[in-house]
Specification:
Blueprint: H1 2-25, H2 27-33, E1 39-43, H3 50-63, E2 69-73, E3 88-91, H4 99-110, H5 117-132, E4 137-140, E5 144-146, H6 150-160, E6 164-170, E7 173-181, H7 184-198, H8 204-215, E8 220-222, H9 228-234, H10 254-257, H11 266-271, E9 289-294, E10 300-306, E11 309-312, E12 315-317, H12 331-334
Helix pairs in contact: 1-2, 4-7, 5-7, 7-8
């Protein structure tokens, strides 16, 4: 009897040791399936460059090791693209479509000219959030590189954005490459609104502005894209001479974030050889300097320098051809990536 108890206790402690060892050596896999207060979502198309996406996710993992990442994959790539073990893949055909999503698909079959990939992504997001019971979701375009630990900024999002958050490059255009979604309720209103706007063939970036105007900032509000000092010096008008009515809209909650979000302007500007501004945007990067500095872990982080002030940039929208140039590339953290296939040898798991 005593021998049986000894053996039982030995096996119990051995099992605990094995479980602990597994999670110590493979933290990314553990993070993928652990309960989390937030999530990242990417939505692929049949044209998505998978190597490019892998670099985007590797960059994201340098700063966000424990937040689950969901990737919605189209049917033709579900079986073939390289699976990462730190990502949860959801085939598009496995998502249960909402009623409004079905109506949208039915509409664009009859009116293919009204089809907008940006709009359909919102319907897919809603289906995923419902199916997986998600909240505090960060939707990212696969061209967006992240340079911060978003879990540290989550309290600011939760406090100030009860609905959704996105960046606007002028008062009438939303750039939906980085979107925070607090819960399903605001997104439900958004998909219903986008469906109605699709009947009018409204550009989704314009439609999101109209949505914000109809339902107010508690449903969709702006992220800070510039500093108040910059705005006061340069942005009382956009280049097309349209008067900006709500100046604080563009540096909304900047003191709480202590950082900026790229409205698909900064990244495009620094990678452009011609350094052209966007004429109809409030923010003109040519008036500033964007520099990269290494943090204490050796990760490159972009900063916006204006006069004597320097403020970190949380994300950059960069093109596929220039992405590698703007990766943070921390050898220490990249060794923790757990994947079955990656293009960079430094990312492969140690045997």
């Amino acid at each position: 009897m005593e021998l049986r108890i000894i053996i039982k206790n030995h096996l119990k402690y051995k099992l605990r040791f094995l479980v602990l060892t597994f999670f110590l050596f493979f933290p990314s896999l553990h993070a993928s399936f652990s309960p989390s207060d937030s999530s990242f979502v990417f939505i692929l198309t049949e044209k998505t460059n998978l190597e490019h996406l892998d670099a985007t996710i590797t960059q994201l993992r340098l700063f966000n090791e424990t937040i689950p990442i969901y990737v919605i994959t189209p049917p033709k790539t579900s079986q073939n693209h390289p699976k990462r073990l730190d990502v949860i893949y959801i085939p598009l055909e496995k998502l249960k479509k909402t009623t409004v999503h079905q109506k949208y698909l039915h509409h664009i079959i009859k009116n293919p000219a009204n089809s907008q990939q940006i709009s359909e992504n919102f319907f897919c997001l809603e289906s995923l959030i419902i199916q997986r019971h998600l909240h505090n979701v960060f939707y990212l375009d696969d061209n967006v590189l992240i340079y911060t630990d978003l879990s540290k900024l989550l309290p600011v999002f939760k406090k100030n954005y009860p609905g959704m958050a996105a960046s606007f490059d002028n008062e009438e255009r939303c750039q939906p490459s980085f979107i925070f979604i607090s819960n399903r309720d605001s997104l439900k209103k958004c998909t219903e609104f986008l469906f109605e706007q699709s009947k009018r063939n409204t550009d989704p970036k314009k439609a999101l502005f109209l949505f914000k105007n109809k339902y107010g900032k508690n449903t969709l509000d702006s992220l800070p894209i510039l500093t108040e000092e910059y705005f006061n010096d340069h942005s009382s008008r956009i280049f097309s001479n349209q008067i900006v009515r709500k100046k604080d809209f563009f540096f909304n909650n900047i003191k709480q974030f202590g950082s900026l979000f790229d409205p698909a302007l900064m990244g495009k500007f620094i990678e452009s050889s011609e350094k052209e501004n966007r004429p109809d945007a409030v923010f003109q990067p040519s008036y500033c300097k964007i520099s990269f500095e290494e943090d204490k872990e050796g990760r490159k982080i972009p900063f916006l320098n204006y006069k004597d002030k320097k403020i970190p940039i949380n994300n950059l929208f960069v093109s596929e051809k220039n992405m590698e140039k703007y990766l943070s590339r921390s050898p220490v953290k990249e060794k923790k990536q757990l994947t079955t296939k990656l293009d960079y040898d430094s990312h492969r798991p140690k045997k």
